[in-house]
């Protein structure tokens, strides 16, 4: 920071402030950014002399003036953190949330098109007051540029799902689970699965017809939800689906009877919607007032 001034006739006439900020791979660039765009600090509260308390008076003051725990319900909060791309940032942010007792439901970290800048999308549940305090502590970290709270904003939410589903029916799936349990009783319960509908007791042609019917049903469900089948084998298939987290959860419930062998979810990513002009917003509100998000409705 370079400050130059001119003094004519004993009085200062102009002051020129020139600031140069260069971003590099060092975490001090985030610190310099926050120093340049610092928020206005609130004035300090007036200080009072410490009163002469007695033991009984101090205890009574602590008991009756301590606020009660907040009974406000916990809600989902979506935090978007812009951080410096360097080692150790994730541990710093997660350490602050862990110290306050937050369980992170989802965490997605990815690079951006800007060099040395990463975006962290954190999904957690908690009370608004505690979340606000955690946001302030995260913003005070050196490698953090800013923290955005999308909890009350109109956002686009997306999540990627990869799941492996059985093509041999639920009997094969239950048999598969029992064989991987280290228990003596598991071997005894395998005999209960030996019925005429079990894949081991079917002819090859009947097995092919069952596989084809199961695969057709899975393709229909996947198409209705906007996904696709990316891999098919003799015993299972892999389905890829992108959508809102609630929609993916509903899809998993529908295909659960087929026998889900494996599930991988990427975690939620979010970006805020771009607001329209005031005139266009008013026309849209008066023309359409549905009140229901069509993406939450079942397919069909």
Automatic annotation (TrEMBL):
Domain ACT: 78-158
GO cellular component: acetolactate synthase complex; mitochondrial nucleoid
Signal peptide: none
Keyword Nucleotidyltransferase (UniProt): no
GO MF annotation: an example: acetolactate synthase regulator activity
UniProt keyword list: Amino-acid biosynthesis, Branched-chain amino acid biosynthesis
InterPro entries on file: Acetalactate_synth_ssu, Acetolactate_synth/TF_NikR_C, Acetolactate_synth_ssu_C, ACT-like_dom_sf, ACT_dom, AHAS_ACT, AHAS_small-like_ACT, ALS_regulatory_subunit
Pathway(s) it belongs to: Amino-acid biosynthesis; L-isoleucine biosynthesis; L-isoleucine from 2-oxobutanoate: step 1/4; Amino-acid biosynthesis; L-valine biosynthesis; L-valine from pyruvate: step 1/4
Keyword Amino-acid biosynthesis recorded: yes
One GO BP: amino acid biosynthetic process
Gene3D superfamilies noted in UniProt: 3.30.70.260, ACT-like. Chain A, domain 2
UniProt cross-references to Pfam families, sorted A to Z: ACT_AHAS_ss (PF22629), ALS_ss_C (PF10369)
Family of this protein: Belongs to the acetolactate synthase small subunit family.
Name assigned to this protein: Acetolactate synthase regulatory subunit
Organism: Saccharomycopsis crataegensis
């Amino acid at each position: 920071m370079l400050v130059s001034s001119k003094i004519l006739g004993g009085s200062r006439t102009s002051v020129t402030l020139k600031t140069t900020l260069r971003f590099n791979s060092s975490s001090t660039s985030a610190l310099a950014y926050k120093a340049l765009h610092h928020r206005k600090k609130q004035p300090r509260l007036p200080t009072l002399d410490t009163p002469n308390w007695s033991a009984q008076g101090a205890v009574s003051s602590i008991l009756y003036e301590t606020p009660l725990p907040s009974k406000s319900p916990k809600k989902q909060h979506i935090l978007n953190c812009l951080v410096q791309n360097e080692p150790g940032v994730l541990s710093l942010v997660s350490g602050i949330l862990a110290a306050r007792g937050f369980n992170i439901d989802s965490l997605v970290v990815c690079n951006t098109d800007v060099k040395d800048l990463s975006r962290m999308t954190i999904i957690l549940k908690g009370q608004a007051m505690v979340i606000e305090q955690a946001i302030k502590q995260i913003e005070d970290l050196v490698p953090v540029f800013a923290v955005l709270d999308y909890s009350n904003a109109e956002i686009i939410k997306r999540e990627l799902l990869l799941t492996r589903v059985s093509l041999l029916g639920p009997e094969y799936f239950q048999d598969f689970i029992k064989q991987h349990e280290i228990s003596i009783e598991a071997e005894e319960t395998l005999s209960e699965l030996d019925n005429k509908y079990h894949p081991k007791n079917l002819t090859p042609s009947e097995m092919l017809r069952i596989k084809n019917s199961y695969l057709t049903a899975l393709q229909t469900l996947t198409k209705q939800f906007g996904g696709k089948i990316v891999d098919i084998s003799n015993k299972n298939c892999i389905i890829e689906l992108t959508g809102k987290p609630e929609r993916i959860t509903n899809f998993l419930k529908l295909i659960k009877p087929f026998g889900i062998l494996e599930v991988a979810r990427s975690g939620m990513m979010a970006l805020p919607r771009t607001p329209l002009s005031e005139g266009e917003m008013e026309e849209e509100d008066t023309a359409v007032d549905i009140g229901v998000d069509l993406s939450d409705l079942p397919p069909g």
